[in-house]
Structures are given as C-alpha cells and as structure tokens.
Design goal:
Elements: E1 4-5, H1 6-13, H2 18-26, E2 30-32, E3 35-37, E4 43-44, E5 51-53, E6 56-57, H3 88-91, H4 93-99
Antiparallel strand pairs: 1-4, 2-3, 2-5, 5-6
Length: 110
Amino acid sequence: MAMERLQKIMAASGIASRRKAEEIIAAGRVTLNGIVVTEQGTKADPEGDLICVDGKPLKSKERLLYFLLNKPKGYVTTMNDPEGRPTVMELMKNAFIRWGGWITQAKDCC
C-alpha cells in the first residue's frame, strides 16, 4: 500500500484529529516499528508498519464494500417489509452471510 503521513493514518483510525495527532507525535507518544517518532510528516505504510500510540497498536481502518444491484421489478428497497413483499435484501442474502452485516445509508449511517 502507499505510504501516508502518520497523522493521517492516526486520524483515519479514530485516535485523534490530524491536528491533535500532530501534538501526540510531537510529545513522543508514537512509535513506528518500535522507534519513537517526533518528526512531523513521517510516512508509514498503514498495512505493513506497526504504529503504536502510548504502547497500544492502532486499529486497522475498516474495509468498506459497496454493492451495485439492478433491482428487479416487484422488489422493494427496504431491510424488511411489513406487507410481506420481496425485498432487495433477500437477493443479497449470500453477501450478507459472507461479509457479516449491513450498513445502509438510509438507516444506519450518517
């Protein structure tokens, strides 16, 4: 994967904002592959390097999957339908089982 600035990696993992991450780096609280980092702009590979803050490894950025579905006529776009009509989620059952859950823009996100 491409190298990214530490503060960007830290912000993506939810540790802090980029500006706060700069303060954490300057305070010597960050290690990159076991070496303390205090220099701003240091780059790292978020998937290949071990980045720790206060001795704790950063959580990996969650991988998102998007599906494009051409909805057939007669199906409704909802997680469940009280009227018992077929839903697009029924078409995606195998994907749900394989990837372990949904985040739908209309209900669970933002």
